[in-house]
Predict the structure.
Amino acid sequence: MASRLDTWKQRVRALKAETYAVYMSGKDPRVPWYAKVLIAFVVVHTLSPIDVIPDFIPVLGYLDDLIITPLGIALAVKMIPGDVLAENREKAQALLSEEKPTSWVGAVVVFAIWLLVAALVVAVILRVIKD
């Protein structure tokens, strides 16, 4: 059982490293603008301490993490020039051994989205109660 757990931990570490390499590639001027837009979305979603769909919601809470992140990264990797990605993979490995990246901008964006959704829900409830 321990080996299965170790395998999952290795996969998670590899996904984090790939996410960070994609993030760093998004800052590179050699990467096309449309790839940078996708990279920004994927990285903000992945590194944000706040989820779009909270994890406590059964099934759906983890579904966004299990689908959006790997598919977004896979698509972004295909859009990034190979030499840029290889260079940033090396940098990501070095940096991840030293520090843990977070995206506070991403957290603010996701929090603003949640506030907007909450305001819309309150507005709908008030309208239903009023009628």
